Every structure is written in C-alpha cells, then in structure tokens.
C-alpha cells in the first residue's frame, strides 16, 4: 500500500512540471521588446517660421480612443495606457511632474506622492436603517483606481518648417485625467504631466490592440505619432492664459475649437499659390 501511495504522489508531482509552455499564438512575436521610438526629423530654429501651442483632450469613451482604455486587466502583453504609465512611474523609467500650479515640467513627483494624493476621504452623516433611526457620522475612504482615468490631455506645438515646406507637430506633454464623483456631482481632476520625449522609449515597447489586424503590431508611441486618435482643442496659447471654457460654453465652445483647428489648415493653404 505504501509503495502505491508513493508512486501516485510521484506521478502527481511530475504532472505539475511543464517543460514547454503551450504557444497561444500561431507565431510568437516579441519584436516590440526591442523597438525604438519613431525617429523625429531634425529641425533648426531658423527653419521654424511660424508656430502655435495647443492643448487637446482625448476622450477614451469614444470608439476610436478605446484602445487607450482597454483592456481593464492586462493580458496577452496588452495593457491600457494608464497601466503602462503607472508601471513606468513605479519603476522610475519616466518622471511625473506636478500639475497643481502649471503645466510646465518643473516639480517632479514620486509614485507614492501620486497615489497618496488620490486617496479620497469623505465625511458623511448617515441614518441607521433600524429603530430608533438615529444619525451617525462616518468616514469613507477610496483608494486610487486607475480605471477611472478616461481622458488624456496632450500639449503640443504646431510649426511650419520652411525647409520641408510642411506643417508639423510635436507632442511635448501628456496628462492623464481622472473622473471623480463628489456630492453626486461629476468632475474631472488632472493627475500629473509627463514629458513625452522622455516617455517615448517606454510607450514604443507597449503594445496596443489593433482592431483591424491582429498581425499588425502597434505601440502607444506609434498611435500618438501617427495621430490614430480623435480629440478636441480645449486651449490655445493666448495672452490671458485662459481655456476655451472660460469664455465660451456649450455649442459656442465647440465652434471655437473648430475655428482654431481650421486656422491651422488655412494658414498652411495660404502659403501656397495655385
């Protein structure tokens, strides 16, 4: 009997050891691990004859932008955008900058500071559901939930390169924006700025789901550089340093954002004579 038990135990242990893991794809491709960011064209100050700074907001709830938000849980080497950023901040691969006073890259933040700022404390007065139905005070704590980040702000410079006779754009900063609810009212809260040129090596090795072709691998850097997203302008450089929402509301704000976008196209078209 003892020999039978030992043999059965040995067989169980051997069954748990797998030398060759199953390959869950037709052909395993790990090329993104060594991918470098898309090279940027060199530009001289003397070649920039015109430039304008814009701020845009990417709403991850829109269908074209959903690859930034999904998957909620990482799998098959896919991680959503905020997970990639937070993992890089934890590892120290990129640096986050404070957003409380300005959108410039001045005051760096640590990963612990970012998380601690998002711990929300709400003091409530509730009524007990049983007699004598007296009231009591309670405190509700909520931790940082990356899944509530459903918008991304980008700061970019548009410029006309007279050497190439072309309107070009450079993304300078990226800011995740979280949606919060307090007193049954929804509001947005920007978390931090990251310097996009510094984050490009990390984003170039983070795979994004391609809904059109599983064989075509895409990275977050490629999505940003090739403008595979939809967004709207919420601010342009101005002497008052104000956003569109500060002087226009509703439909007027949308029309103002569209006017700024058309100005870029009209400026480039006006440089040519047919």
Your description of this structure?
- The structure is a single chain.
- By secondary structure, the protein is of the alpha+beta class.
- The protein has one domain (49-119, 146-270).
- It is 26% helix and 29% strand.
- The protein is built from seven helices and twelve strands.
- Strands 1, 2, 3, 6, 7, 8, 9 and 12 form an eight-stranded antiparallel sheet that branches. A two-stranded antiparallel sheet has the order 4-5.
- A hairpin with a 7-residue loop joins strand 4 and strand 5 (135-142).
- The radius of gyration is 25 Å and the shape is globular.
- The N and C termini lie far apart (97 Å).
- Mean pLDDT is 85; it is low at 1-15.
- Low-pLDDT runs: 1-15
Tally of domains:
1
Element order, helices and strands?
Answer: HEHHEEHEEEEEEHEEHEH
Structural class: alpha+beta
Tertiary shape: globular
Radius of gyration: 25 Å
- Report helical residue fraction: 25-40%
Number of strands: 12
Percent of sequence in beta strands? 25-35%
Amino- and carboxy-terminal Cα gap: 97 Å
Mean pLDDT: 85
* Major sheet attributes: 8 strands, antiparallel
Number of helices: 7
What's a quick, concise take on this entry?
The protein is built from seven helices and twelve strands. It has 274 residues and is an alpha+beta fold.
Comma- or semicolon-separated keywords:
single chain, alpha+beta, 8-stranded antiparallel β-sheet, two-stranded antiparallel sheet, 12 strands, 29% strand, disordered N terminus
Secondary structure: elements and pairs:
Elements: H1 2-15, E1 48-59, H2 66-69, H3 81-91, E2 96-97, E3 108-109, H4 111-117, E4 120-127, E5 135-142, E6 149-161, E7 166-182, E8 185-190, E9 193-195, H5 196-203, E10 207-208, E11 218-219, H6 220-225, E12 232-236, H7 251-270
Antiparallel strand pairs: 1-6, 1-12, 2-3, 2-9, 4-5, 6-7, 7-8, 7-9, 10-11
């Amino acid at each position: 009997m003892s020999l039978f038990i030992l043999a059965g135990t040995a067989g169980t242990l051997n069954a748990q050891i797998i030398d060759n893991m199953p390959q869950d794809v037709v052909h395993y491709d790990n090329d993104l691990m060594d991918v470098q960011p898309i090279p940027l064209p060199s530009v001289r100050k003397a070649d920039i004859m015109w430039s304008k700074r814009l701020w845009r907001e990417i709403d991850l709830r829109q269908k074209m932008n959903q690859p930034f938000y999904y998957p909620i849980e990482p799998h098959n080497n896919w991680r959503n955008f905020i997970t990639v950023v937070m993992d890089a901040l934890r590892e120290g691969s990129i640096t986050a900058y404070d957003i409380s006073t300005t959108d410039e890259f001045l005051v760096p933040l640590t990963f612990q500071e970012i998380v601690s700022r998002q711990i929300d404390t709400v003091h409530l007065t509730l009524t007990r559901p049983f007699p004598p139905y007296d009231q009591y005070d309670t405190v509700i704590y909520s931790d940082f939930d990356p899944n509530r980040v459903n918008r991304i702000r980008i700061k970019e410079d548009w410029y006309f390169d007279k050497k190439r006779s072309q309107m070009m754009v450079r993304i300078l900063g990226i800011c995740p924006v979280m949606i919060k609810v307090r007193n049954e009212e929804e509001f947005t809260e920007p978390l931090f700025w990251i310097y996009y040129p510094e984050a490009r090596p990390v984003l170039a090795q983070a795979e994004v789901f391609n809904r059109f072709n599983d064989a075509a691998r895409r990275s977050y850097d490629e999505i940003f550089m090739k403008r595979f997203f939809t967004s709207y302008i919420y601010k342009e450089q101005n002497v008052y340093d104000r956003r569109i929402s500060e002087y226009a509301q509703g439909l007027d704000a949308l029309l103002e954002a569209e006017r700024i976008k058309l100005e870029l196209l009209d400026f480039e078209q006006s440089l040519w004579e047919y």
